[in-house]
Amino acid sequence: MTDFPFASVLVVNRGEIAARVLRTVRALGLRGLLIAHEIDGRTPALDLTDDVRLVRGETPVAAFLDIPQILAAAREMGAEAIHPGYGFLSENAGFARAVEDAGMTWIGPAPETIELMGDKVRARAFVGERGFPLAPSATEDDAPVTFAERARALGAPLLLKPSAGGGGKGMRIVRDMALLDDELARARSEAQRYFGDGRLFAERYIERPRHIEVQILGDTHGAVVHLFERECSLQRRFQKVIEEAPSPALTETERAEICAVAAGIARACRYRGAGTVEFIRDENGFYFLEMNTRLQVEHPVTEMITGLDLVAEQLRVAAGHPLSFTQQDVRRDGHAIEARIYAEDPARDFAPTAGPVLRLRPPTGEGVRFDAGVLEGESVNTAFDPMLAKLVVHGADRTQALERATTALSELVLLGVASNITYLRALLEDEDVCAGRIHTGLIAEKPELAAGKPLEPETLASLIAAAALSLPQVRGAVDAIPALHAAMGAWRN
Amino acid sequence: MQGYLIIGEEAHALAICPAMGGGYRLADGAPLTLRESGGRMRIQVGETVREAEIVVAGETVWIHLEGVAYEITWRSAVERLARSADGEADGAVHAPMPGAVVKVLVQPGDVVRAGDVVMVIESMKLETTLRAPRPGVVGHGRLAVGESFERGAMLIEIGEGG
Amino acid sequence: MQPIRSTVRTDGAEFRANAAHNRGLSAQLAERQRAARDERPDRDLDRLRRQNKLFIRERLALLLDPGTPFLELSTLAANGAYDGEVPSAGQVAGIGMVMGREVLVRGDDASVKGGAWYPHSVKKIVRALDIAIENRLPVIHLCDSAGGFLPLQAEFFPDRYHAGRIFRNQAILSKMGVPQVAVVLGHCTAGGAYIPALSDYSVIVRGTGAIFLGGPPLVKAATGEVVEVEALGGADMHTQVSGVADVAAASEAHAIAIARETFGALSPPAKTAIDWISPEPPAHDPEELYGIIPADSRVQFDMRECLARMVDGSRFHEYQPAFGPTLICGLARIWGYKVGILANNGVLFSEAALKGAHFIQLCDKDRTPLLFLQNITGFMVGEEYERRGITKDGAKMIMAVAGASVPKFTVNANASFGAGTYGMAGRAFDSRFLFSWPQAQVGVMGAEQAANVLSEVKIRQLAREGRSLSGEEIAAIRDPVLRDYREQSSAWHATSELWDDGVLDPVDTRNALGLCISAALNAPIADTPHYGVFRM
Fold this sequence. Notes:
The structure holds 3 protein chains of 3 kinds.
Chain A: E1 8-11, H1 15-27, E2 31-36, H2 44-48, E3 51-54, H3 60-63, H4 67-77, E4 81-83, H5 93-101, E5 105-106, H6 111-118, H7 120-129, E6 137-139, H8 147-154, E7 158-162, E8 172-174, H9 180-195, E9 200-204, E10 210-218, E11 224-236, E12 239-245, H10 252-268, E13 273-282, E14 285-292, H11 299-306, H12 310-318, E15 335-342, E16 344-345, E17 351-352, E18 355-356, E19 359-361, E20 368-372, E21 379-380, E22 387-395, H13 398-411, E23 413-415, H14 421-429, H15 431-435, H16 442-445, H17 448-451, H18 457-470, H19 472-479, H20 483-488
Parallel strand pairs in A: 1-2, 1-4, 2-3, 4-5
Antiparallel strand pairs in A: 6-9, 7-8, 7-9, 10-11, 10-13, 11-12, 12-15, 13-14, 15-22, 16-17, 18-21, 19-23, 20-22
Chain B: E1 4-7, E2 10-13, E3 16-18, E4 24-26, E5 31-37, E6 40-45, E7 48-57, E8 60-65, E9 68-75, H1 77-86, H2 88-91, E10 92-94, E11 99-104, E12 111-112, E13 117-123, E14 126-131, E15 136-141, E16 148-149, E17 154-159
Antiparallel strand pairs in B: 1-2, 1-9, 3-4, 4-5, 5-6, 6-7, 7-8, 8-9, 10-17, 11-13, 11-16, 12-15, 13-14, 15-17
Chain C: H1 13-38, H2 42-50, H3 56-63, E1 71-72, E2 91-98, E3 101-108, H4 119-135, E4 139-143, H5 164-176, E5 180-184, E6 187-189, H6 194-198, E7 201-205, E8 210-212, H7 216-223, H8 229-233, H9 235-242, E9 247-249, H10 252-265, H11 289-292, H12 303-308, E10 317-319, E11 327-334, E12 337-344, H13 350-365, E13 370-376, H14 383-387, H15 390-403, E14 408-417, H16 418-423, E15 433-436, E16 441-443, H17 447-464, H18 471-489, H19 491-496, H20 509-520
Parallel strand pairs in C: 3-4, 4-5, 5-7, 6-8, 7-9, 12-13, 13-14, 14-15, 14-16
Antiparallel strand pairs in C: 1-2, 2-3, 10-11, 11-12
């Protein structure tokens, strides 16, 4: 099944994902096209593309959101299909429509599906109506009079949020139901003060939740399969740091259940292409969070345990081909872990870093995959998100995967810009992480991991010697000492 | 003394000595060598041998040693000792001559780097740009455009942080 | 060059007895130097701490390049003066390495009487600057002095080579283009204020450094004006208003770092090239010197044995070995530098003096520095020798020594008496550096001889009056003379009075000379040597 109705694919993205998509595009014998921003300089994607156009904008990010400019570039390069990657315009239904209206193939789900799942309220309603599990909640808007009662009925612990709010402001956790009325009153007045609107939204507060998501794939012939789950509980301020497949928390029964639910949701909305259904799981069960109608950053861990190329599958589905395998055919093997390499300094509260990539030496080794978004010799800028690369590792089991991951992180050489590589290693060596006792609050609970280990005296001595002898001004100062005086050393009479 | 190496928050004074017949050693006599070995650098301090990747960029040395990347910055003794002893005194921008404020380019709370232009002043029909003497957070000062001042007056304070 | 054949029995009783004696002297030297350099009453060190000041040794450690040698001069100056209360004359001076260049470093030791200048202190400073001038060595001054010790001003102020000579020397150094950097770490008062003022560059520490011709008490006494130290002569005033100092530093460490950096920014010296090859250590262990030098300084020993423990590979090319054998002349290398060596193996006869004068001229023409190893009691006396012109032959040797344009280095290895001192480049003859070994003596004649002569004079005088003296009465005349002479001709006394540039452990001599030769090559060697008239 190697024939495609489109001969070229334009990747509307940058960094590691642009390179990764182009790699598959070329492997399938298609022409790869790219848009790029000047500020990124030379990139791995540039080396893989057959043609490129520069885009401009008020900010670099704005350039990647400029639909007219992008479509013009697509037309100029003769693009016949468009792959949006993740982020940017990947979940922009308007863009999907514009692409289709322009006669190009959109590598993604139907625009209506994007719209449905993009609207959090509509998505929850759609899922709830069809009997799929939702985190219990109560919205004041529905029936203000009964709100307090319905909130109480949810049970403790309860999370109160301002309906009009955001950014974590005005949220409070109620653990003792006896105090509910008091807390409601105070939450209301805070919401009023911060947002000018005292209405509330209550949901069960999941202590130590685990973030589990299921990869699904649907074709244009009605078939939907799941490709097992991923666990993405290691997050910092709602940003995923380390992901793995499969989840160490699920039994086979739980796995079958959650994957069936995900597939069911995808089937219900006639999902076309690759998508991910995200759940929150606690000791009581799992609840639908949202559905992402695009390829996710962490898709490689699924690829590594299933042996599939998800981008290739996306392209096949977009070409109108039916899935070449059934759910029976999907097997998982071993365990995969992905660590996201960010340009940030854990020791300085993860402040973004910038600088030249003076050296980049990816790790090699069995089961190691390194998707780089930067090239040695180029500079990392702060215009876009700080992800530099993804390190993905496969092992026969979770223990081997963890070992290979920590080894690969040690071998990975990235010099010139501060990164979170050592922090990732500390996380993967952490006792609780190794035991699989992870949850979305773990990273926040272990701030000491960001501080790094104190230097051993021998390590410090080696660093000082290496740095001193590498600096011409230090070496020169010592070289300036004449041979006679050098030979006598620190002699005194 | 050949300056200081800053690793993380620590500053380490350098005292590398010449070794008889060429080469280097530490004050306690431990010989130091740094040699290329199969694409990496081989560091020896006394009996301890390590392999590392090393890149120098100006006054910064990046070293990948035992699985960890280190950023090491060199500061000359003069520069380092001027900073640490003076603390806040060095952090303020003082008027080099009497004059008036023409333009203020920062606000209290702004994070600046050493050398960033913070203010333009005018004196004797000449405009002069004033720069932050060190990195930090802009604090208080006489910031109103048009205000005049004496020589030596403290114009903008640059505090630690940022 | 062949190595010297040693005939000393290192396992003999004599050798071992000598070694025990000389090691004892060596230990004494080490202990005296340690005390002079480092032993200070706690209250004096505490006072420095309270004043936020570093000890002079700490300042030196910050100034000098790590892992480099420091040849300290006249550590035991003033050891016999002022009841021993002014160790090292309150001054440190030496040749060290700063930013890869040789420097004459000198500084006030504020832990000794506040760094006040005593007569010996002034002499030490003048001598240090004379060395700088003769060898064209840049100077770094570490200034921290309370000023002149007024009760003794008549001994350090008015005369030609008194305190004024310090400032004259500074001016001459500047005129010669030899740089000076002054680091003001304490007060520079009155005369002392001129040290930074006459230096090419000066750094002053904010809060502790001050420069003024008169301090607040003097100003108040003189004009009634009341003014604080900072306003009168502090760092900010001088670096912003008066321009007397160049840079203000935040701390002593900062000031010294600035001085190093300033120094490093100056053009490197162009050193004079002389014959040099890669050094090799002596073939014989230098520690054997302890066993070679006799315990009794009146016992003659073969200087060649000493040379074998001091020169590269123990190699020595002797000149006229059979002629004038009481003076050994020959070429050797010290730390690779070729040097011409004159060493005494007995009294100087005419032949020896002529040989010496000739050899000095040969080395002068060949641009070979000269090393004089003194063990000389004098020239031969007696009718036969006078008739053969020993006096004019000695004069020829003195003429050659005085006129030589190559650098001269002198080590008093045992004895330096009478005119022998002159012929062997004693203090008056402008050796770039002159050192004594611990057992060495210097004087117009040996103590025994002097005691005999003086008591002989007295005996004859009394005999003319018809009296004679008993054994005890003779002893009563002789013994005090003996005692005084011994004391005043000792190396400890000589070094106390700065008649030398320091007492050296014999084993340290090789390194000291290597450093001295290297330092001396900062000055050019005149192209055409010339001398006065040799009385033929």
